Amino acid sequence: MPGSICDVLPAAAALLEVPGAVDRLALADWVGDVDRIAVVLVDGMGWHLLPELADDAPLLASVVTGDAGRLRQLVCTFPSTTPTSLVSLGTGATPGEHGILGFTVNIPGTNRVLNHIRWRDDPPQAQWQPLPTWFERLTHTGVSARAVLPAWFIGSGLTAAAYRGAQFHPTRRGEDYAQRLADELAAAPGLVFGYIADLDTAAHVFGIGSCQWHAAATVVDTLLTRLVEGLARSAALLITADHGGLNVPDDARVDLDADPRLTAGVRVVAGEPRVRYLHTEPGAASDVLATWREVLGGRANVCGREQAVATGVFGPVHPRHLPRIGDVVVTCTTATAVLATGHEPPETARLIGFHGGATDAEMAIPLIVFRG
C-alpha cells in the first residue's frame, strides 16, 4: 500500500525528533540525521505526470530515472483538490476528520456555499477546522516551524486550517522564491514549508501538455534545482504534491444548470466539476439519485451520502462534518466534468485541466527526497 499525504509531516517531525511523531514513510532509513527539513508542495504535480514533465525538467528527469534523490508514490486524500490536500498535509488527518471536504462545501443549516480558497473568517477558522496542525505540534515542542507563502495567503481561513502554528514569512510577486526558501532553511534548524502554484495554474488554464504547462515545468524544476544544490549536509528536502489531473474535452462536459432534469429537487450545489455535492430538497434525494444515475450513465459514480461515507473514501467522518457532504455525491470516473454555470464563476467552465476525482491520475502523487 502506498503512503499518504497525511504521512509526510509526521515523518518529517520524526526526523526532527519530535515526541509522538511516527515516520511511516521510513525516511530515516535513507535521510539519516538532519536538523532541518524543507517540505515543498508543487501544486498539481501528479505521479502520472512525471514522465511528461521530465521533458522540460532535468532534475525531475534524473529523479524518474533513479539518478538523483529518492522517489516513491503516495496518494492524496479525497476529493483530490487543493484545500482538502493542504489540510490533510498540515494536520496529518483525513478529510472526514478535519472537515475540509472539498473545494466548496455547503455550510450546514444554510443555503450558503463556502469556497475554501476565498474563505477568511466566516465560518470561524478554529471552529470549522478544529484539529491541531503539525506546525503547532512542532512549535509546542520547541522546534521551529516556518511557512514561506505569498502575502495574500496570510490570514486566510485555508492558511489557518492547514498551517496554523507556523511562523509566516510572506513573499511578494516577483521575489526570488527559491532564495527565500533557502535563506529560511539556512537560518535555523527546524521545518520550512513552501508552496508552488505555477504548474497547477497552467494545467487549469491551458491544459496538461500545453506549451504553457511545459514552460511552468521548467520554472518549477529550476527552483527545485536551486534548493537541491544549496542543501547543507544537515538538511533534507521533501518534495510532494496535492493531486494530479487530466484534461476534459468540451464534448465531455455536462452543465447541470442547462438541464432541468439535473436541477430538479436540488437545493444547493457544491463541490467542483469532478466531484459534486448535491444537497436536496426534503424528500427528493432518491429521485435526484435516480435521475443523475440515468443522465450520467457510466461517466460517474452517483451515490447517497451514507453509501459514500461507508466506502471509506473520506476516512472516518466526524458526525459534525457529515452535513458538509451532499445528500447525493457525484464522482466522475471518466474524463468528464459536471459544470454548474449558474452557481460558479464563468471562468470555471473555461478551464481545460481538472482534478478532484478518485482516479489514479488524480490521486497518485510523488514524494521526492533529497539529502544534503
TrEMBL record:
GO molecular function: hydrolase activity
Name of a matching Pfam family: Phosphodiest
Name of the molecule in the record: Alkaline phosphatase family protein
UniProt source species: Mycobacterium shinjukuense
